[in-house]
Amino acid sequence: MLAGLLLSAALAGGCSSDTEGKPVAAPGAGPAEPSMPKAKPSTTLPVPSSANPPAGAIPLQPDANGRVFIETKSGQTRCQIDSESVGCEAEFTNSPMQEGEHTNGVNITATGDVKWVLGNLGDIPTVPIDYQTYDADGWTIAATESGTRFTNQHTGHGMFVSIEKVDTF
Questions:
Q1: Residue 16 belongs to a domain
Q2: Is residue 70 in a domain?
Q3: Span 76-88, pLDDT tens digits
Q4: How many domains are there within the chain?
Q5: How high is the pLDDT of residue 51?
Q6: Does residue 44 fall inside a structural domain?
């Protein structure tokens, strides 16, 4: 009966999808994050891109959801790429503060909108990349020792990402 009263009160009071505060998980407070298999570099033939990737760019196949997940050669940066945006996660040394913490993620859209975030990409199935040029879902990825440059092949917008800095264009 008490459960019925609480349910009635909750329904009468309305619902909200916003919850104030900052989540903090205690050890054993819930199920562990699911583990996903690590992806191996694709051995299938590349799917032609509608954009014009640079000559010699190594194609990276999107998964069934249209995303490519990469990890830089240093292992310090992981990124999620789809036709609309690139989001990278790293322990940046000079990122903006958010909720009293340094942000660890940056996202840029094909139209050039940039957003810094706090978050975790989780156990994504990354493809390790070397210091070369890649083509992924309409983005050119130019990886070097100093950082990784993502350029949208349709709009020319993108970002250069390194642990020390992020430059957008």
A1: no
A2: yes
A3: 999 999 999 999 9
A4: 1
A5: 61
A6: no
